[in-house]
Structures are given as C-alpha cells and as structure tokens.
Amino acid sequence: MSSGGNSGSGGSSGGGSHWGKILGFIGTGSGFIGAGSAAIVPAILEKDMLCNLKVINVNNFLKCDDKSTIPTETPVTPVTPSPTPSYSPSAKLPKQDNSPSQSPNSCEKQENSNTVNIGSLDLPCTSNSNISPDNLERRYRFKLDNPSNISLFLDGVNSAVEMSLYSDKDGTGVIEYTLENVSAFKSKLGIIKKELGVGSYIIIVKSKARDTPYSLQIINNTSQIQNIGYLEDKTIQENGSISLNNREHFYRFQLANPSNISLSLSDVNSEVGMSLYSDKDGTGVIGYTLEDISAFNSKPGIIKKQLGVGSYIVVVRLKAKETNYHLTMSAP
C-alpha cells in the first residue's frame, strides 16, 4: 500500500507524508474526508483547489501557477459616482429666448402698477397700451448714461391724448420740471424730439377726452447711430427701409481734411426726408442743421456740400408711408 502511495505521488517517498498532512488537516477541518482516504483525494481535490489552500504549503509536491493564488481580501471603500457633466463640447446649446422682452432689438420693461420702468435707454422701446376713465394716465421712466438725442412718437389713438416729458428729480420718480408737452390726435402724430443730458426722465401719457388705445415709441437716436468712419476717398452704399415702426436712421461720418461731400437718396416709393447735421463735439449728438431735403419716387434727394474737418450726422426719416431707400455717401 505504501508503494502505491509512492507511485501515486509520482515522486519520492516524502510525498506520502505530505498527503497525509493535507488529508489530516482536511479531515479535521471539514469532516467529510477521512485521514485514510488518500486514494480518492486526487479525484475530489483538484490541483487548483489544493494550490489555493493558504494554510499548508503544497509547493513542495505540486507545481502551482501564480494566477491560482487568491489575493488577500482588503476592505473596499464605496465610491460615490461623479455627477454627469451638464455640458460637453458636442452638446447643443439652448436656443436664445427671442421673446419681445428679451429681443436684442428692443428694450426691457418692468411694469409696476401704472408705471413702466425702462432703465437705461439704449435700445428702442415700443409700448402698446390704452387709457380710460379707470386708468387716466400711464408713466414711463428711463435714464440716460450719456448725452443723447431722443425721439418720442405717440400715435394709434382714437381721441386726443397728451404726452409730456419731465425731468426726474434725483432719479426718485418725482417730477421736477416740464421739458415739453404735445398732443396726439386720430389724424395727427404727437412728436417730441429733444437733446437730453445724463440723468433720469419721466414721460406721462394722459387721456384728454375718452378712452383710447395708443402706441408710444421711445428712441435714443445717439445710441442707435451707425458709424461709417472716415469718408475721404470712399463711396459708401447703404440700403435700408423706414416704416411706422422704424421711422428714422442715423448715420455718422468723419472728415480728416476739408472735403466736398455728396449725399444721394434714391429708390424710394414715397417722400423720404434726408438731413445733414454737425456732430456736437463728436459725441453723436446733433449740433446744428447744415441742409435738409426730400427724395421722391420720381426724383432723388441730393446734398452737395463743402465741409471742414470734423464729424457729421446724416438722418433719413419717414415723411409719408413706409418705403425702402438707397443712400450713397462719398467724398471724392
């Protein structure tokens, strides 16, 4: 029997003693294999199972690969998953909100009872509202960060409506003094054009007869001016359109040397006005009128003038109905 154990081990006579140790350990620890069951051990205990026993060194009679070794178990610290990034380079950006209150071409207004707060008047403001015996007047407050030419247009009324412009005392919303007062009628537009300094201002629209809708446009022409740059040795071509919602276009050019300039307004379907002004200290504010003409469907409007060094303003304005136009400016 001992020789069979030697031959089964495939090695020296010491192999049997190792099997005995292993069997004795297993029999003691588990109870299902006795110490005399050496003949069935190879069938029950696979080589990998023996190699994975860490208590007994089996490498003296079995060749074990390193991969069969069970790694020492270590505590695993739970990992909190990182939040998914809200933006990736391939992600689409949300669309811009182009609702009227956020439109890049109109001002933002905040209404509080019968007062509309505009804040800094940089973009054009249009308000369509109504006044009645229950709502006799409506106030608008705005401020200017720079000296500016402003225009107020009141129309779309069914009866007489008064429009007044006041200074705002220290920006408190309290009327200080009257700057101008006009009325709009069903057949007549109410207009206020004014050069205003830095500060706060109040507009009041008030019923003079009965309830009526109205449309009020508040425009800072200086902030909307289109800068052409130096005009010498250039011919500038501008195509535009004017309408009840966009009544005036302002352009500004400079001259580095005294020059003969030429302005031509053509391709209109109705009467359109064109005015040339000096630019007050290069601020974009109208100084004084140099020339004022009109263009018609059958006749272009032309201004030819010798001008000195400085900055100048050209205004194209609606005088009848909406129309396209073509403006040519040159200083050959």
Which sheet architecture does the biggest sheet show? 6 strands, mixed
Strand content: 35-45%
Alpha carbon gyration radius: 46 Å
What is the string of SSEs from the N terminus onward? HHHHEEEEEEEEEEEEEEEEEEE
Helix content: 10-25%
The geometry reads as globular
Ranges with pLDDT <50 over ≥5 residues? 1-46, 67-74, 76-104
**Record field, number of beta strands:** 19
Distinct helical segment count: 4
Task: Give the overall pLDDT as a whole number.
Answer: 78
Given the helix and strand composition, which structural class is it? mainly beta
Sheet with most strands: strand arrangement: 1-2-4-9-6-7
How far apart, in Å, are the first and last alpha carbons?
125 Å
How would you describe what is shown here?
With 332 residues, this protein is mainly beta. The protein has four helices and 19 strands. It has helices spanning 2-9, 14-30, 41-44, 47-51, and strands at residues 110-112, 115-120, 125-131, 137-144, 148-155, 161-168, 175-184, 190-196, 199-207, 212-220, 226-230, 235-242, 248-255, 259-266, 272-279, 286-295, 301-307, 310-318, 323-330. The strands form four sheets. A six-stranded mixed beta sheet has the order 1-2-4-9-6-7, with no helix packed on it. Strands 11-13-18-15-16 form a five-stranded mixed beta sheet, with no helix packed on it. β1 and β2 form a beta hairpin. The longest helix is centred in the N-terminal third of the chain and has 17 residues, at 14-30. Residues 1-46, 67-74 and 76-104 have low confidence and may be disordered.
